[in-house]
TrEMBL record, chain A:
It comes from Chunga burmeisteri (Black-legged seriema). The lineage of its organism: Eukaryota, Metazoa, Chordata, Craniata, Vertebrata. GO terms for cellular component: AP-3 adaptor complex; cytoplasmic vesicle membrane; Golgi apparatus. The keyword Membrane applies. GO terms for biological process: Golgi to vacuole transport; intracellular protein transport. This is AP3S2 protein. PANTHER family: ADAPTOR COMPLEXES SMALL SUBUNIT FAMILY. The gene is Ap3s2.
UniProtKB/TrEMBL annotation, chain B:
InterPro entries: Adaptor_Complx_Large_Subunit, AP4_complex_esu, AP4E1_C, ARM-like, ARM-type_fold, Clathrin/coatomer_adapt-like_N. This is AP-4 complex subunit epsilon-1. Belongs to the adaptor complexes large subunit family. GO terms for biological process: protein transport. It comes from Grus japonensis (Japanese crane). Residues 1039-1142 form the AP-4 complex subunit epsilon-1 C-terminal domain.
Length: 193, 1144
């Protein structure tokens, strides 16, 4: 599972912090600091995986990070996640942000912290990857803000209103998987009771 | 164009509201969106303007105070509250606690409209943790929202549930969430599955009943829902891989995904649902592990996956890597393995570092199954060793560590040490040093060689390594010859190292070096000890050597000096250091000087190769007995330990007792002192009987073991060792494995050289490195690389003999000590019997049964002589066993049945029960009634025999008809043990008559008082059962123990558990003898001797646990000092003593 998702800038200022396991405030700050130091001294052309030692209290954890312009996106995961998979997940997340904010930059993350969190919630929930399909994520986010706007009124976020209008006719994407021939056997249900 | 319009639109309201000209920060595309939360904006702006951490702290505290005021104000609108929450989230992110806002976050989630609710939920999930009590307040809101018709609300509720939810409230929402599994919207179903996964994680048994619903989710028509359900299955299969017969389904799903049956929408870089594939491959790996049958099912699809993943993109490699892992995890199939190996090759050879890293990881994973794979990629691995990325390097070392064998270990450890020198990360260092230590234990040769080359880092990090190493060297291996080879090699290599005049070695290394030289330099015959001594001497004078190391060196010098006849260097050294400023060095020099004068003693003191021999320390210092007795004979005051001197000072009575304790006593001391020294175990007892000097014996008189090598430097020089290992000195040393090995590494492999001639110098070097690294990897390639296949690997196993011998030694110590303790007892018996002749029958009196009453009779004196003797004999034969088991603090289990078997001898006696003749003579209690029914009456009498407590039970039949099959049964009691069977059956009891049976009882676990209960049943018209209980006290099982003063002294020193207590004496018994008499009468203690204001008493707990008591009076206080092999006994007796003294 994913234990933490940290985003900080080149100076170590946290921009998005999400822990999926409970840790004391000081420990969290220490992890952010140490992670930053670990990541900072690595130049851009070496590998994106890092063993973070006893940072999380076990040797099993890894840091997987990507560096975009002024921001570091760091996912701290345990051994049950695929390194390359997470690496691309970061890409998906960032691309989604880019779509939602149209040319995302550090300022967007700062000033729309709540929105960033909501987008993240569509991707990763409780430490597990929920959705990796970019279009789907964007659609969910848009659908929610559309409904909210009906209540909240346009004045709250004019820019979002405009983009919502742009995407108002987003087609419902067919997602049906053809599993007619899967025919899952249910031989002895008793095991599952 | 529309873009520009949009931006202008969005900027305007922000500008209008803020009234801050120029407040829009620069940044591409960003400025327009700043307006939405203006206060947050200004907060952030002011924070970014700050320069120091301190200022930031101040500002945030300010902000938090104002936020606190705002959120708690009743007028605050929900809209404002929402803004406050965002600011709070920001503060929390920066690490400032804002717990005052938590409750408001919950409120916001409860009351707000959608927008506000969403922020409220988000704040809750960020602020609170699983066990927070505040979470309970959220449950109602969640339940309400789950039932809402608004999809967004349901979604939010499900999201918060799958992030954080109190475990104990799961039942409240579980049915609602189960319903959501049938929801028409797939996003709701998906989130519901996710919520259930969360429940499964925090409370698996709560969701057990809905496993079939998970299955439905797996078959959901939406792939997203199916993917979500895989989380649950992965988790369940991880916990128990055998319980799920779903392999077929997973394989079918994977087949469809790989085959592109999913909508195009799921593609990521034209790979169909890669994360789903990864998940499925993991599940398959878990399922197929060690299961040939299920593995069979998945071969096809794995093959397909490997084949399909061709597009050169990151995510394909992710799938490939997963595939490879699965292939190597499940039951192997050669074709697949081949393909997987090819894939690993692709990874390792890839120019992308991420892939290289994973390739190395995969290699590490498969290397044990297939070492040839490493050989194929050896050159790449060599290159990775010099990779600029430390992560790659570390992974490479990990890989090398896995392929370590006797041939390549030196090179590999060398590489590890190189890495250690560069690395600064503590975690990496600890990890690596641990590995080196492990290797060192397996291949000790490398250690000798490599230590010198390692930097000082090694000793900082792991002080255990040298200790382990020395222990290894000293304890040796299975083969004695190998040991000596190793030792000789060590000595030789260290001597070579010392040759370099100005080399700087780490302190730990110098210590190891000097220890080895001191201990084993005599094994090397062709080096003059004088040379070694000279080297050590010069080392001593170096400034960089710390004083701790100097002590090590000095000890080595001493040891070497003991083998040599006369050495100028030693003389010089003694001279030099005799007036050293360092007191420690001065002392060593002084000791060395004195030892040199007596070579015989020195040899005895420092035997060869005895570092592993356990030293037996004579804690009682018995070898000083002669000296002490001489001193006492001349009228010196006996030694008093510190606490006793202080006690006396406090009492401020008579200052010191200058009287010697009589001549006989002095003689006994000297005699026992001499025998003590010659005793085979080295454990002897000072038999100073004053009771004062009895304290000189340490509490732990059983052998003090100096385990391990490090402790050798303690008091080593003071005690003769009993066992010398001999027969090792003369073995000739011809070949040293280690040097052979070293040669191998040094020589470039000859047969290889013609092939590599064309390569460049650098490549050649690498080839060489490769050949040294990968030799011995099982394949012929490895051997041919080296061109030599003659050396056998040297593997050593640590031997565990040491412990066994130690144990057996210990055991024999006990035997010896026990027998020497009790031997003299036999001789003393007649004397004691004579002593007590006068007392016999004088105080015969019956005491009441209730055992809290004290038995006043000195019953041992009333025992017939024959009985007593036999009892004592028993005790003697028993003593060895009981003694040793008592030392281990266990209870006595072994009994010899009493020869005077009065157990269970039922006989007829008149209706009014009375003891039979033979028991009448023993001390016994009155006969008391235990219980009574219409038909039966039960009486009991305690008889205190010499070797047990005899419970005499009388059953009287009050009816006019005979009673058949009367069963008496004692229940098992924690503290007591009934010898032989706890039941007794009277076949028939005639009308109006009394039957009797007897049971011997011992105390099993010490307690001051305990209850033994039992029942009796008999057949009249119906089954009748009577219950009774008997109270037994510790005193029922205490018997006097007759012994002489000397025996007392010996025993005293051998006992380890002691208890001391001062009790106030009442006026009636202000003299010592009066007090002792009370103890003698009431506690059945035996007075051994009274000297002045001190007295010694002895008793035993049946069957034969001795307890000794030393009493001393001063200023109205009686100082009691108990000693016993059993820890609980002194406490119990002390309690009784206190009671007795209070009563009188």
């Amino acid at each position: 599972m994913i234990n933490a998702i940290l985003v900080f800038n080149n100076h170590g200022k946290p921009r998005l912090v999400r822990f999926y396991q409970h840790l004391a405030e000081e420990v969290q700050q220490q992890i952010i600091r140490e992670t930053f130091h670990l990541v900072l001294k690595r130049d851009d052309h070496i590998c994106n995986f890092l063993e973070c030692g006893s940072l999380f209290g076990g040797s099993d954890y890894k840091l997987i990070y990507r560096h975009y312009a002024t921001l570091y996106f760091v996912f701290c995961v345990d051994s049950s996640e695929s390194e390359l998979g997470i690496l691309d997940l970061i890409q998906v997340f960032v691309e989604t942000l880019d779509k939602c904010f149209e040319n995302v930059c550090e300022l967007d993350l700062i000033f729309h912290m709540d929105k960033v969190h909501h987008i993240l919630q569509e991707v990763v929930i409780g430490g597990m990857v929920l959705e990796t399909n970019m279009n789907e994520i964007v659609a969910q986010v848009e659908a929610q803000s559309k409904l909210e706007k009906a209540e909240g009124g346009l004045s709250a976020a004019p820019s979002r209103a405009v983009s919502a209008v742009k995407n108002i006719n987003l087609p419902e994407i067919p997602r049906n998987i053809n599993i007619g021939d899967i025919n899952i056997k249910v031989p002895n249900l008793s095991q599952f009771m | 164009m529309s873009d520009v319009v949009e931006r202008t639109l969005s900027v305007l309201p922000g500008l209008l509201r803020q009234h801050e000209p120029g407040a829009v920060p620069g940044g591409a595309g960003g400025p327009g969106r700043v307006s939405a939360t203006s206060r947050l904006g200004s907060l952030i702006r002011s924070i970014t303007a700050l320069t120091s951490k301190h200022e930031e702290e101040k500002l945030i505290q300010q902000e938090l105070t104002s936020l606190k005021a705002t959120v708690s104000a009743p007028t605050t609108t929900l809209r404002l509250m929402k803004e406050c929450m965002v600011r709070l989230i920001y503060c929390e992110m920066l690490g400032y606690e804002s717990s005052f806002g938590y409750i408001h976050a919950i409120k916001l989630a409860q009351q707000g409209n959608l927008l506000e609710k969403r922020v409220g939920y988000l704040a809750v999930s960020l602020f609170l943790h699983e066990n927070d009590e505040l979470l309970l307040l959220l449950v109602n809101t969640v339940v309400k929202d789950l039932q809402s018709t608004n999809l967004v609300e349901v979604c939010m509720a499900l999201t918060v549930v799958s992030q954080i939810f109190p475990r104990e409230m799961i039942p409240a929402v579980l049915p609602l969430i189960e319903d959501k599994l049938q929801h028409s919207k797939e996003i709701i179903r998906r989130k519901a599955v996710q919520a259930l996964y969360k429940f499964y994680l925090i409370a698996p048994n709560q969701v057990q009943h809905i496993h079939d619903k998970f299955r439905k989710a797996l078959c959901d028509r939406d792939a997203g829902v199916m993917a979500a359900s895989l989380h649950i299955y992965l988790q369940m299969i991880k916990e128990n891989s055998s319980g799920y017969d779903l392999t077929g389904s997973f394989v079918t799903i994977l087949k469809q995904v790989v085959g592109g049956k999913l909508p195009i929408d799921f593609n990521y870089h034209s790979v169909p649902a890669p994360w789903l594939q990864i998940q499925l491959l993991r599940i398959l790996g878990l399922l197929g592990k060690d299961d040939p049958r299920t593995s069979e099912l998945m071969y096809d699809v794995l093959d397909e996956s490997l084949r399909r993943a061709e597009i050169n993109h990151n995510i394909t490699y992710a799938i490939l890597f997963e595939c490879v892992q699965t292939v190597y995890t499940i039951h192997p199939k050669s074709e697949l393995l081949e393909k997987a190996a090819k894939c690993i090759g692709k990874f390792v050879l890839s120019p992308k570092i991420n892939l290289k890293y994973l390739g190395l990881k995969a290699l590490t994973y498969v290397i044990q199954q297939d070492p040839n794979l490493a050989l194929q990629h050896q050159m790449t691995i060599i290159e990775c060793l010099d990779h600029p990325d430390p992560i790659i390097k570390r992974e490479t070392l990990e890989l090398l560590y896995r392929i370590t064998n006797g041939h390549n270990v030196i090179v590999i450890v060398q590489k590890m040490l190189d890495y250690l020198k560069e690395s600064k990360e503590e975690y990496a260092i600890i990890n690596l040093v641990g590995k080196i230590a492990e290797l060192a234990e397996k291949y000790p040769f490398i250690f000798l060689k490599l230590w010198s080359q390692s930097s000082g880092k090694c000793d900082v990090v792991h002080p255990d390594i040298p200790n382990n190493f020395l222990r290894l060297l000293a304890e040796g291996f299975d083969d004695g010859k190998e040991d000596d080879q190793l030792r000789v090699y060590a000595v030789k290599s260290y001597l070579t190292l010392l040759e370099e005049e100005d080399a700087l070695y780490p302190q730990k290394f110098l210590q190891v070096m000097s220890w080895v030289l001191g201990e084993y330099s005599s094994l090397v015959t062709d080096v003059d000890p004088e040379v070694i001594l000279a080297k050590l001497h010069s080392l001593l004078k170096k400034t960089f050597v710390t004083s701790e190391t100097k002590v090590w060196i000095m000890a080595a010098v001493t040891k070497i000096a003991s083998h040599t006849s006369h050495s100028k260097t030693v003389d010089k050294l003694i001279q030099e250091f005799s007036n050293s400023l360092d007191t420690c060095m001065r002392q060593f020099a002084f000791e060395l000087k004195h030892l040199c004068e007596d070579k015989a003693l020195m040899k005895n003191l420092l035997p060869f190769d005895a570092s592993c021999t356990d030293m037996v320390v004579d804690a009682s210092l018995s070898f000083l007995d002669g000296f002490v007795s001489e001193g006492l004979g001349r009228g010196a005051a006996p030694y008093k330990p510190h606490h006793q001197r202080q006690e006396e000072k406090l009492s401020q009575e008579k200052a010191l007792n200058f009287e010697p304790y009589g001549l006989s006593f002095a003689a006994s001391v000297s005699s026992s002192g001499i025998t003590g020294r010659q005793s085979p175990t080295g454990l002897s007892f000072g038999s100073d009987m004053s009771g004062n000097s009895g304290e000189t014996g340490h509490k732990e008189t059983n052998t003090l073991k100096l385990e391990g090598v490090h402790k050798l430097w303690g008091k080593e020089g003071y005690l003769p060792k009993k066992e010398n290992k001999v027969g090792k000195e003369n073995e000739p040393q011809t070949v040293s494995c280690g040097s052979l090995l070293a040669r191998q590494v040094g020589d470039p492999p000859a047969s290889r050289s013609d092939q590599v001639a064309s390569l460049s110098e650098e490549d050649k070097e690498k080839q060489q490195l490769a050949s040294t690294l990968f030799i011995g990897l099982g394949s012929s390639a490895g051997v041919s690389l080296l061109g030599k296949a003659d050396t056998a690997t040297q593997k050593f196993k640590r031997k565990s003999k040491i412990n066994e011998t130690r144990n057996s030694e210990e055991a024999s110590d006990f035997q010896n000590s026990a027998s020497s303790d009790f031997g003299p007892l036999l001789d003393t018996v007649p004397i004691n019997l004579e002593d007590c002749e006068g007392n016999i029958h004088t105080r015969l009196r019956k005491v009441s049964l209730c055992s809290s009453d004290i038995v006043e009779d000195n019953l041992a004196f009333e025992t017939p002589q024959s009985l007593k003797k036999s009892g004592l004999d028993d005790r003697l034969s028993d003593s060895r066993l009981s003694q040793s088991s008592l030392f281990a603090d266990s209870n006595i289990e072994i009994f010899l049945p009493s020869p005077s078997a009065h157990c269970e001898s039922a006989s007829k006696i008149p209706l009014v029960p009375s003891l039979p003749e033979e028991l009448q003579q023993l001390t016994h209690s009155e006969v008391v009634e235990l219980c009574q029914s219409d038909a039966l009456a039960l009486y009991l009498c305690k008889v205190w025999t010499d070797d047990s407590l005899l419970l005499s039970v009388f059953v009287s039949n009050k009816t006019n008809s005979a009673l058949n099959a009367v069963n008496l049964m004692f229940e098992e009691a924690e503290h007591f043990q009934i010898l032989e069977s706890p039941t007794y059956q009277f076949p028939v009891i005639e009308a109006q008559s009394v039957e009797r049976c007897e049971k011997c009882v011992w105390m099993d676990k010490i307690c001051t008082q305990g209850i033994l209960s039992g029942s009796i049943n008999y057949q009249s018209e119906m089954d009748t059962r009577l219950e009774f209980s008997v109270t037994l006290s510790l005193l029922d099982f205490i018997r006097p123990m007759a012994m002489t003063t000397e025996d007392f002294g010996k025993l005293w020193l051998s006992l380890s558990n002691d208890v001391k207590q001062n009790i106030r004496m009442s006026r009636s018994q202000d003299s010592l003898s009066a007090a002792l008499n009370t103890l003698q009468q009431k506690l059945k203690l035996h007075i051994v001797d009274i000297i002045g204001n001190e007295g010694i008493l002895a008793c035993q707990l049946l069957p034969s646990v001795p307890c000794l008591l030393h009493c001393r009076t001063h200023s109205g206080m009686l100082a009691l000092w108990f000693r016993s092999p059993c820890s609980a006994l002194p406490d119990g007796l002390l309690y009784q003593c206190q009671k007795v003294m209070e009563e009188s």
